[in-house]
């Protein structure tokens, strides 16, 4: 017998998830934007050099390109790509 989930349970779970997102402190968003700006600055030259053809294909394509070219990246961009 497989367990069933009621519609009410799903709605409650979705509401709790949404409330947790809304209650994130306001200082988190600017910090995330600063992190992204720093990452873009660290990798902009490497993206132009190694992934130029993919620049219009979105962030995921660029990320994959940088991963594939990891050995060729500048030290600062390599840190971003490797999550350090």
Secondary structure topology:
Elements: H1 7-22, H2 28-50, H3 59-68, H4 75-81
Protein model, in words:
The chain has 84 residues and is mainly α. The protein is built from 4 helices and no strands. α2 packs across α4.
Summarize the structure.
The protein is mainly alpha-helical. 67% of the residues lie in helices and 0% in strands.
Using the alpha-carbon principal axes, give the shape. Answer: globular
- What is the count of DSSP helices, taking H or I runs of 4+ residues? 4
Largest sheet: none
SSE succession: HHHH
Strand content: under 5%
Quaternary class? single chain
Q: How much is the radius of gyration in Å?
A: 19 Å
Helix proportion? 55-70%
Q: For the residues shown, what is the average pLDDT?
A: 75
Distance between the termini: 46 Å
User: Would you count the extended β strands for me?
Assistant: 0
What is the SS-derived class? Answer: mainly alpha
Feature tags:
single chain, 84 residues, mainly alpha, 4 helices
């Amino acid at each position: 017998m497989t367990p069933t989930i009621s519609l009410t349970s799903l709605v409650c779970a979705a509401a709790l998830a949404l409330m947790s997102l809304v209650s994130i402190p306001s200082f988190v968003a600017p910090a995330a934007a600063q992190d992204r700006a720093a990452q873009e600055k660290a990798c902009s030259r490497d993206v132009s050099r190694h992934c130029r053809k993919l620049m219009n294909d979105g962030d995921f394509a660029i990320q994959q390109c940088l991963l594939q070219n990891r050995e060729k990246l500048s030290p600062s961009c390599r840190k971003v790509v490797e999550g350090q």
